[in-house]
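Summary for the lay section of the report: proteins are chains of building blocks that fold into shapes. Here we show the chain for TraR/DksA C4-type zinc finger protein and then a coded description of the shape we predicted for it.
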Amino acid sequence: MLTDKQLNEFKQQLEAMKEEAEQELAKFQNQQKNSEDPNDKEGELSSVADHPGDLGTSQFEKEKEYTLHEQTREKLKEIYAALDRIKDGSYGKSEKSGEPIPLERLKAMPTARMTVEEAEST
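The coded shape description reads as follows.
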């Protein structure tokens, strides 16, 4: 069972993680809002790229940014869920078995929903 001090420390850590993730999402959204046609970024005068490699690189970068955005959104959902578990008193207990999640696991992964063994078996 976690002490009030430990719960408060995890809450502070999760709040900091939440703020960081929200900043990352806001940054991505601002980049998307301010983005232009890839050819404009490359200084092209027409809508046809001079070299297919330039277009491929641009597409790769967009996909990479989108993947990072999706990962950050998932991370934020996990953080919100962990904060909800702190509020309802279920934080630190496995959602699968109800057994306590070891403190070491929570320190390494404050959003953990179950023990390592349970997570590996699913």
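Put simply, here is one thing we learned. The longest helix spans residues 52-88.
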